[in-house]
């Protein structure tokens, strides 16, 4: 049973080679210079077994690893893949057998593998400064260590913090604040008044601060748009996936709180409040004034009717449709949403419906008119 995002099972039970994969076409993370096992273990504050002087020059998946690369294994059930791997070094939990390979022990191998990649095989980033072909308004402020790529637009009154990247085609309309160490990827649009904290990542096509879907009838009953004058606020360490939209508040603010992670193609409507460390998976849609408590998880294609609260630590399974408040820690599934145990009983009953229908028809045929 999944009880936390931290223990979500791997998508695959074992490594599978992609037939179209070629190391000539796909560049896996390589370190600028080799690092020893002991050096990597020290960075992670972890114990290691075997040759501490063995060198690691890159990071890879089990089947694609070269002899000088490090791989990770989440659990004992996946360790069988090591038999077909050329990897020199393994990152694995205690108790997982890795043969005679040097092994760094970790309680969270996937997270620590990511830390190593980020630290020792950093991704490309553009040069600091405003590139030729970028447009920065004379009233905007861009930190000297920030990067604004060609084709990006930083409008009047905007501020871009230190070491933040504004990629090609990204637009900060006006009076937008973006903090330090962030990345606004290509094609993202931040409408006027948007506030973005430190270490925020906005993937391509994100739109922050578009007008909310709010209409009222006029005297003739025709829908008229409500004035939308609120803003969007993203706190520190938020990450938002490609083509996700977060609408501005009608008044006040739509807020995404510290550490929340939102997947691709998600709709967050006006005046929503998304709590700290919340996870929202792809194609979910939250109607206006939805409040999501800290560390709640919404799997793919969840939906809410708006003006409701989802409690802290709640879990909504894929395709769950919520039309009422959700208690903290609750686990709901289905449309309409129901608690987990009831949902499983309903699914079991649905499987029996064809046989039950046959039994009803047999009973009906056995009854004479007036017998009932």
What labels describe this entry?
372 residues, alpha/beta, UDP N-Acetylglucosamine Acyltransferase, domain 1, 10-stranded parallel β-sheet, 3 helices, 39 strands, disordered N terminus
Task: Map the helices and strands.
Layout: E1 30-36, H1 37-44, E2 48-49, E3 55-59, E4 69-72, E5 89-92, E6 103-105, H2 109-120, E7 129-130, E8 135-136, E9 141-142, E10 147-148, E11 153-154, E12 159-160, E13 165-166, E14 171-172, E15 177-178, E16 183-184, E17 189-190, E18 195-196, E19 201-202, E20 207-210, E21 215-217, E22 223-225, E23 231-234, E24 239-240, E25 245-247, E26 253-256, E27 261-262, E28 267-268, E29 273-274, E30 279-280, E31 285-286, E32 291-292, E33 297-298, E34 303-304, E35 309-310, E36 315-316, E37 321-322, E38 331-333, E39 338-339, H3 340-366
Parallel strand pairs: 3-4, 4-5, 5-6, 7-10, 8-11, 9-12, 10-13, 11-14, 12-15, 13-16, 14-17, 15-18, 16-19, 17-20, 18-23, 19-24, 20-25, 23-26, 24-27, 25-28, 26-29, 27-30, 28-31, 29-32, 30-33, 31-34, 32-35, 33-36, 34-37, 36-38
Antiparallel strand pairs: 1-3, 2-6, 21-22, 38-39
């Amino acid at each position: 049973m999944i009880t936390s995002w931290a223990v979500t099972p791997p998508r695959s039970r074992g490594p599978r080679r992609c037939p179209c994969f070629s190391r000539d076409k796909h560049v896996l993370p390589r370190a600028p210079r080799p690092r020893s096992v002991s050096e990597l273990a020290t960075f992670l504050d972890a114990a290691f077994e075997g040759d501490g002087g063995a060198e690691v020059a890159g990071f890879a998946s089990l089947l694609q690893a070269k002899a000088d690369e490090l791989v990770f294994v989440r659990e004992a059930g996946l360790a069988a893949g090591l038999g077909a791997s050329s990897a020199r070094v393994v990152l694995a939990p205690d108790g997982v057998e890795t043969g005679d390979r040097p092994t760094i022990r970790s309680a969270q191998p996937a997270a620590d593998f990511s830390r190593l990649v980020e630290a020792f095989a950093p991704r490309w980033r553009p040069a600091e400064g405003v590139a030729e072909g970028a447009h920065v308004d004379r009233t905007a402020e861009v930190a000297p260590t920030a990067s604004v790529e060609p084709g990006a637009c930083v409008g009047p009154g905007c501020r871009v913090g230190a070491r933040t990247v504004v990629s090609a085609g990204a637009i900060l309309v006006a009076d937008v604040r973006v903090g330090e160490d962030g990345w606004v990827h290509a094609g993202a649009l931040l409408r006027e008044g948007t506030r973005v904290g430190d270490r925020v990542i906005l993937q391509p096509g994100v739109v922050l601060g578009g007008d909310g879907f709010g209409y009222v009838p006029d005297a003739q009953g025709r829908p008229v748009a409500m004035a939308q004058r609120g803003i969007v606020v993203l706190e520190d360490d938020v990450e938002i996936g490609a083509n996700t939209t977060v609408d501005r508040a009608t008044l006040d603010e739509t807020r995404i709180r510290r550490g929340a992670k939102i997947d691709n193609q998600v709709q967050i409507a006006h005046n929503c409040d998304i709590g700290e460390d919340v996870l929202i998976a792809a194609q979910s849609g939250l109607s206006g004034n939805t409040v999501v408590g800290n560390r709640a998880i919404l799997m793919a294609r969840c939906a809410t009717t708006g003006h409701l609260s989802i409690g802290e630590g709640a879990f909504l399974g894929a395709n769950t449709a919520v039309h009422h408040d959700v208690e903290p820690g609750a686990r709901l599934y289905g449309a309409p949403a129901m608690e987990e145990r009831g949902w499983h009983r309903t699914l079991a009953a649905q499987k029996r419906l064809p046989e039950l229908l046959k039994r009803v028809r047999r009973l009906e045929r056995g009854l004479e008119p007036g017998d009932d």
